[in-house]
């Protein structure tokens, strides 16, 4: 599929402003040609001492054409730029609509700096497509054809020379620019991506780089990337300047041709001398409208390259099934069932989950334990529809998850992931992420439940919660979840950074609130699991054993060995 199809569709939706921009551009171009042609004719007429009323009429026409040109040029700029900004708005909306269903999988494939460069830089580059690629040829053709018809009334030979000039400036010069542009096609954008990636890596890892003494090396890499980017941008700008200079040379060459040919026609008696200045001025003016054609190939390739890079990100969205409309109830506990579920990450040699079958009855409390890399977190991501199973089926409340809208699943779920994001602002701001209203009394009560009674709602939170400890972040994430009204709790290592006493207090509050809800807890610690209805033990993507705490301890299997190891570590500590 053509990468620019989405842009073309957006242009069709902005057809009214585009049509007004074309009309304004055509009137401005013709008014400019007429203005300078009439000025040349007026100068020529003064030599023959015409009647005063002739000079008054010609002077008035010059003023009227000047005003008309200025007004139509303003209208052209107004409508063309308004159409461009509307196009960018539609592109961003469409792009993000396709991007959201692909997360978080796409975050694991693209470096954040590269992804940011595509989202910001490539979308911005597409603003040139209408102004620099689609719009100029239309205006050039319309203005040139009108000018050729005008000049043909005085001399068919000069009109033919105008046609030659149009072909040279509209096709030959852009073709020559395109040949040179292919050598540097995409290099500036790729280097800009590399530079953005290096900047992002340096900012995110500044503290670690400083601690490990690698900051200077990273700074050198960033400086090198900056120098290369500057060199590529300079080469690209120089190439465009050469194209513009070539266009100017051709335009003046045609104007000299009109002058020489006009003199010959006057000597031959085929053209009245009073029209020579008019035709020369017309040739000088009409080629100004063709000036954007010199840089059109560069902007066209830049736009195509940007559209292709964006299409690479959202290509998967084009082959996704239609968006399901099924909604998950938020008023009753949810039953969960996994039947033969297998999931394998791209480019991984082994599946993260292998033929997993589990049933979580509505209102049950289940803990999933196991070593790192056993597939526990993958189950949560599959239940949230952040990833799609390679095979098998997942059902929520006896409805296939493929039939449920993911937004409805998120709304019906109280989720705490391993890494929760915190925004710059206050504690209140970070608690009130949900659309529902909560007063300060409710917020303070929730902070008490998660053992943060002394934390002020007005306390500042830095970007990514940099001024909060890991334990405070986890308890704030739990507080956010406890403010929601969902009946499905999905908790992934929610208290791993808490001490045992605080952890038990928080769990008691959590279990009390989720008493009638379905709760799935991912954890490494085995302390306090006696209160869970069932414990599922996983390793290498498989279920090793499942049962109540007492049943697993009596079996003296995998869970029993994990518990003994934990007791020894606690005793040594």
UniProtKB/TrEMBL annotation:
Keywords, sorted A to Z: ATP-binding, Membrane, Nucleotide-binding, Transmembrane, Transmembrane helix
InterPro entries membership: AAA+_ATPase (IPR003593), ABC1_TM_dom (IPR011527), ABC1_TM_sf (IPR036640), ABC_CydC/D (IPR014223), ABC_transporter-like_ATP-bd (IPR003439), P-loop_NTPase (IPR027417), Type_1_exporter (IPR039421)
A matching Pfam family: ABC_tran
Chief location category: membrane
GO process terms (BP): cell redox homeostasis; glutathione transmembrane transport
A GO cellular component annotation in the UniProt record: plasma membrane
Cross-referenced Gene3D superfamilies: ABC transporter type 1, transmembrane domain, P-loop containing nucleotide triphosphate hydrolases
CDD domains associated with the record: ABC_6TM_CydC, ABCC_MRP_Like
UniProt domain ABC transporter: residue ranges: 336-565
GO molecular function: ABC-type transporter activity; ATP binding; ATP hydrolysis activity; ATPase-coupled lipid transmembrane transporter activity
Highest taxon in the source lineage: Bacteria
Every ABC transmembrane type-1 domain range: 19-288
Its membrane topology: Multi-pass membrane protein
Cellular compartment(s): Cell membrane
SMART domains: AAA (SM00382)
Transmembrane segments: 21-42, 48-68, 129-150, 156-180, 249-267
PANTHER family, sorted: ATP-BINDING CASSETTE SUB-FAMILY B, TRANSPORT ATP-BINDING PROTEIN CYDC
NCBIfam families: CydC (TIGR02868)
Protein name, UniProt field: Thiol reductant ABC exporter subunit CydC
């Amino acid at each position: 599929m053509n990468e620019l199809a989405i842009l073309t569709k957006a242009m069709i939706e902005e057809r009214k402003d585009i049509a007004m921009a074309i009309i304004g551009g055509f009137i401005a171009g013709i008014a400019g040609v007429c203005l300078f042609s009439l000025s040349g004719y007026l100068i020529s007429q003064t030599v023959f001492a015409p009647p005063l009323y002739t000079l008054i009429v010609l002077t008035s026409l010059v003023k009227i054409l000047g005003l008309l040109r200025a007004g139509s040029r303003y209208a052209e700029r107004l409508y063309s730029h308004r159409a461009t900004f509307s196009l960018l708005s539609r592109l961003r909306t469409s792009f993000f609509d396709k991007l959201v269903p692909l997360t978080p999988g796409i975050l694991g494939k693209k470096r954040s700096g590269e992804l940011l460069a595509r989202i910001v830089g490539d979308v911005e580059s597409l603003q040139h497509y209408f102004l620099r690629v689609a719009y100029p040829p239309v205006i050039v053709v319309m203005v040139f054809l009108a000018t050729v018809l005008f000049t043909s009334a005085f001399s068919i030979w000069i009109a033919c020379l105008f046609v030659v000039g149009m072909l040279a400036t509209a096709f030959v010069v852009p073709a020559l620019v395109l040949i040179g542009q292919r050598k540097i096609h995409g290099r500036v954008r790729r280097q800009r991506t590399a530079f953005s990636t290096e900047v992002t890596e340096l900012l995110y890892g500044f503290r670690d780089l400083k601690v490990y003494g690698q900051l200077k090396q990273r700074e050198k890499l960033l400086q090198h990337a900056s120098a290369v980017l500057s060199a590529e941008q300079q080469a690209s700008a120089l190439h465009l300047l050469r194209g513009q200079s070539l266009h100017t040379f051709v335009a003046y060459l045609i104007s000299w041709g009109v002058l020489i040919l006009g003199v010959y026609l006057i000597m031959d008696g085929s053209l009245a001398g009073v029209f020579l200045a008019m035709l020369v001025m017309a040739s000088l003016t009409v080629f100004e409208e063709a000036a954007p054609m010199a840089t059109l190939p560069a902007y066209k390739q830049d736009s195509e390259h940007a559209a292709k890079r964006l299409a690479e990100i959202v290509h998967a969205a084009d082959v996704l099934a239609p968006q399901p409309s099924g909604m998950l109830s938020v008023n009753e506990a949810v039953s969960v069932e996994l039947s033969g579920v297998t999931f394998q990450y791209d480019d991984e040699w082994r599946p993260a989950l292998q033929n997993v079958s589990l049933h979580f009855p509505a209102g049950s409390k289940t803990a999933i334990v196991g070593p790192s890399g056993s597939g526990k977190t993958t189950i949560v991501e599959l239940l949230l529809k952040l990833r799609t199973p390679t095979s098998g089926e997942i059902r929520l409340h006896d409805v296939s998850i493929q039939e449920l809208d993911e937004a409805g699943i998120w709304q019906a779920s109280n989720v705490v992931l391993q890494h929760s994001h915190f925004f710059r602002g206050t504690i209140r701001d970070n608690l009130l992420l949900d659309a529902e209203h909560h007063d300060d009394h409710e917020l303070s009560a929730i902070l008490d439940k998660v053992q943060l009674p002394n934390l002020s709602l007005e306390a500042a939170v830095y970007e990514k919660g940099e001024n909060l400890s890991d334990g405070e972040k986890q308890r704030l994430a739990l507080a956010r979840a406890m403010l929601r009204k969902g009946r499905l709790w999905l908790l992934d290592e929610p208290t791993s950074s808490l001490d045992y006493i605080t952890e038990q207090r928080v769990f008691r509050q959590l279990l009390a609130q989720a008493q009638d809800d379905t709760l799935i807890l991912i954890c490494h610690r085995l302390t306090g699991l006696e209160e869970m209805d069932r414990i599922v033990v996983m390793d290498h993507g498989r279920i090793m054993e499942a049962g109540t705490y007492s049943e697993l301890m009596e079996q003296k299997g995998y869970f029993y060995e994990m518990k003994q190891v934990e007791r020894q570590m606690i005793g040594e500590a």
